Amino acid sequence: MITRSGRHIDPEDPVWILNHYRAAEVHGAGAIMRMQRLANTTRLRTDLSRHLRDEAVHAWLWTRAIEEFNGEVVDVDEPYQAVLAAHYGIPKTLNDMLALTLVSERRGLSEYEIHVDQQGLPKAIRRPMKAIIRDEQWHVSYIEDALREQAKEDKGVHQLIERAEHADALAIEELESNAPV
Ligand SMILES: [Fe+2]
Ligand SMILES: [Fe+2]
Description:
181 residues; mainly alpha; Ferritin-like; Ferritin-like_SF; Ferritin-like domain-containing protein
């Protein structure tokens, strides 16, 4: 199975995909930690703290799942994040980071939602994934709220979101065209 972000899910090799999930969560935690420094309200600082906690917990849940399969925890590249950033350009402001976080959170959530519906998914994957999906839904919704708040002061926010959505679409197109069949 090829996911929308160009990942090849081999049902025979859960450790491979779990390592990719783990790497994406670790990457997400790093991005939230960087964004935290630019937060401009108590609400956003509070939400980003909870978000940072969640991504670290998710990385740990996938680490534990890899161990349950007696797999090796390895560092893997995050092709989606790198290609997304290449298409968007260097994020300079809080609103750039929020817009990029919105599209990558939506992308991550949709990958998990596709995967969780797969038949015969081992319990060691389904159980943490269900809990993680609930957190990811909250991430998407609070980032949407934060961007709505920011848009009251800065009308350019809508364009940033469109730019991030366009970068996401280009990234997926690029990854799908390079994906193994
Ligand atoms: Fe996560
Ligand atoms: Fe997330």
